[in-house]
Design goal:
Layout lengths: L5 E8 L5 H10 L2 H5 L12 H6 L6 E7 L2 E7 L7 H7 L5 E7 L8 H11 L2 E7 L8 H14 L4 H9 L1 E5 L4 E3 L10 H10 L12 E10 L3 E10 L1 E3 L3 E5 L5 E5 L2 E6 L2 E4 L2 E3 L3 E5 L9 E3 L17 E7 L14 H14 L4 E4 L6 E5 L2 H13 L4 E3 L3 E2 L2 E2 L5 E13 L3 H10 L3 E7 L3 E9 H4 L2 H8 L5 E11 L11 E4 L7 H7 L3 E3 L12 E5 L5 E3 L14 H4 L11 H7 L4 E5 L4 E5 L4 H12 L1
Parallel strand pairs: 1-3, 1-4, 4-5, 5-6, 28-31
Antiparallel strand pairs: 2-3, 6-7, 8-9, 8-17, 9-16, 10-15, 11-12, 11-17, 13-14, 13-16, 18-20, 18-21, 18-22, 19-20, 21-32, 23-24, 24-26, 24-27, 25-26, 28-30, 29-30, 32-33
Helix pairs in contact: 10-16, 11-13
């Protein structure tokens, strides 16, 4: 049975195609939103990291009421590292808005979420945004969207629906049009199309209760909150429900509180009917995939499997000589407690303490997935250190070692394609597809996750910054053997002092520097990269010997090249097995695990024996 007063739609977009702005304008187009003076200005509760990075890292939902129809809008992450959120959240939707930039067209990362939406069977409307941008080509962008859908295996019905349902918009100016030149200056054409043509939920309104938990929220007062869609029946506050786990275990629970989504917030209610999205309080230790159903007439739903983590990193309390200068929280116990709190909130990560109690191992879907947690901790005032990301291997049914394999896509100017193929070949990659255009070549590779680490910078270097690099988890495949790591050695500080321009001037002839004059350095800290293999211990505080004769100004001045500055992801990909990244609220430093040069030589000798 169709519930005509409900629409559940997901928004699919690349990282910077105006998703947040579009939802903001849709909200403000409704009279109820204008009348509500208490609604927050920040749409979708976006935090500072998401605004800085231009990505959505959590799937969230809001609701809009228009012409008596409640529209649940689901925001989906666009990055493959957060795919665990995407696959689950799309289960709550009946349709999707494919948001594309009129100038850029579909980007490589658009493929990831769009593929899942097509596989889920959603009806897809196309929204061509930023049609007022100089150089915009809305018709070309729309045709590219249809071509991409066809490439990803869209059905004839999905392609036909997309061809008939396209809107041209400028979210920042607050208008949507059925034709780029029709002159309309409001968002109502998009809202009308969603209400009139987007499929309503097809659910069993009068059947037994069946609701599946697809995402988890957490409150310090009530614990875990299960959020999901009601597929049949009605869930009531205070009623007894049967909770069926993914593994088949069953338990009874009581619905203590029930919420539905109302614009940017939640509203407590007594019941939620089929087709709507609800938040349930009262199910102890609820998890992804749990089915809330009628104890007398239980309904079975397909289990939800969270993709397994592919990378792990060990978090440790900082042992740096400069510990405590930037952050307020430096203890191992406090770090462990904070990570265990994250385990309750973030079900896509696996967080476990090491057997020797020396640190906490955090496993996630990729470098970005893990670095977002690190960025959150440093902003909360924590100081800590992490080791090199480690790929998680498995054993297949025959006892053979298998490792995560990724699909990598590079789009670059034609003249650099050969260099890109060479870079991937050295990292263990195999080219699976190549399409040469008039100016841009599209190349696809199959490559072990181990080979991906540190590859982005090399691709940008050989394409002179003009390449677009994107990768996503594909499957677990046979172990690919040894893959070469960083070939160049490091320059390591021998003292704990501030860097001096005179010393750096002589060192920059040996390689690239990571520090500038006045930077606080310590013994064992990486201050640069050599042009040759092998580490080199250097004196970054050496000054010029002073005589009793005057020197000319040209003799005194030192011309320094700007230092190489690492982002958190770049630092994690750069370090070797015997190195660490020290993370503080103000600094990201690279260091050796053993700070003393003699200790490092002893450890190397023991390793040889």
């Amino acid at each position: 049975m169709r519930v005509d007063n409900l629409r559940n739609i997901a928004i699919i977009a690349h990282v910077d195609h105006g998703k947040t702005t579009l939802v903001d304008k849709l909200l403000r187009a409704t009279d109820a939103f204008r009348a509500n003076q208490q609604v927050e200005e920040r749409v979708l509760d976006s935090n500072d990291q998401e605004r800085e990075r231009g990505i959505t890292i959590l799937a969230k939902n809001i609701s809009i009421e228009y012409k008596g129809v409640k529209i649940n809008v689901l925001d989906t992450p666009g990055h493959a590292d957060f795919g665990g959120e995407v696959e689950r959240v799309l289960r709550m939707a009946d349709g999707a808005l494919l948001l594309v930039d009129a100038f850029e067209g579909p980007m490589p990362q658009t493929r990831f979420v769009l593929r899942h939406a097509i596989d889920t069977g959603l009806s897809i409307m196309v929204v061509i945004n930023k049609i007022d941008r100089p150089g915009a080509e809305p018709e070309r962008a729309f045709n590219d969207c249809l071509d991409l859908m066809a490439d990803l295996g869209a059905t004839d019905e999905q392609l036909e629906f997309a061809m008939e349902h396209v809107v041209y918009a400028s979210a920042v100016n607050g208008f949507a049009r059925l034709d780029p030149e029709d002159g309309n200056m409001d968002m109502f054409p998009l809202l009308d199309m969603v209400v009139d043509d987007m499929p309503a939920p097809d659910v069993d309104v009068d059947g037994p209760l069946a609701m599946q938990c697809v995402t988890i929220d957490h409150s310090n007062f009530v614990g875990r909150i299960g959020i999901g869609r009601v597929y049949s029946g009605t869930i009531h506050q205070g009623e007894q429900i049967l909770v069926v786990k993914n593994g088949g275990e069953r338990a009874m629970a009581t619905v203590k509180q029930l919420f539905t989504f109302d614009y940017l917030g939640r509203t407590e209610c007594s019941e939620v009917g089929a087709g709507d999205i609800a938040a349930v309080v009262g199910v102890d230790s609820t998890d992804i995939g749990d089915v809330y159903t009628d104890p007398e007439n239980p309904v079975e739903l397909d289990p939800i499997e969270i993709d397994p983590p592919t990378l792990s990193i060990v978090f440790e309390a900082s042992t740096s000589p400069l510990v405590g200068r930037d952050g307020d929280i430096v203890g191992a116990r406090q770090l462990k407690e904070r990570l265990f709190t994250e385990r309750e909130n973030n079900v896509t990560m696996r967080i476990e303490e090491l057997a020797d109690k020396s640190g906490v191992e955090v496993s996630g879907r990729g470098i970005l997935h893990l670095s977002v947690l690190m960025e959150t901790l440093r902003r909360e005032g924590y100081e800590f250190q992490v080791g090199r990301p480690r790929v998680l291997f498995k054993k297949d049914e025959n006892g053979n070692t298998v490792e995560p394999v990724e699909q990598a896509v590079v789009e670059c100017p034609d003249e650099y394609a050969g260099k890109v193929i060479e870079v991937f070949g050295n990292a263990g990659g195999t080219m699976t597809n190549m399409q040469a255009g008039s100016t841009v070549t599209h190349v696809e590779f199959r490559i072990p996750t181990r080979g991906i680490m540190g590859l982005k910078n090399r691709v940008l270097n050989v394409t002179h910054g003009e390449g677009v690099f994107y990768h996503t988890f594909l499957e677990y495949g046979p172990y690919a053997g040894e893959i070469g790591g960083r070939s160049n050695g490091a320059m390591i500080s021998m003292t704990t002092e501030k860097a001096v321009a005179y010393a750096l001037g002589t060192l920059q002839e040996r390689g690239a520097l990571f520090v500038e004059p006045g930077t606080e350095c310590y013994e064992g800290m990486l201050v640069g990269e050599r042009n040759k293999p092998g580490d080199m211990v250097v004196n970054i505080a050496r000054t010029k010997n002073l005589g009793n004769q005057r020197s000319s100004t040209s003799d005194i001045s030192v011309q320094l090249v700007p230092p190489r500055v690492f982002s958190l992801e770049e630092a994690l990909e750069y370090i070797a097995d015997d190195e660490l990244v020290e993370i503080t609220p103000k600094n990201i430093r690279l260091r050796k695990r053993l700070l003393n040069a003699i200790d490092r030589k002893k450890a190397a000798a023991r390793a040889v024996k």
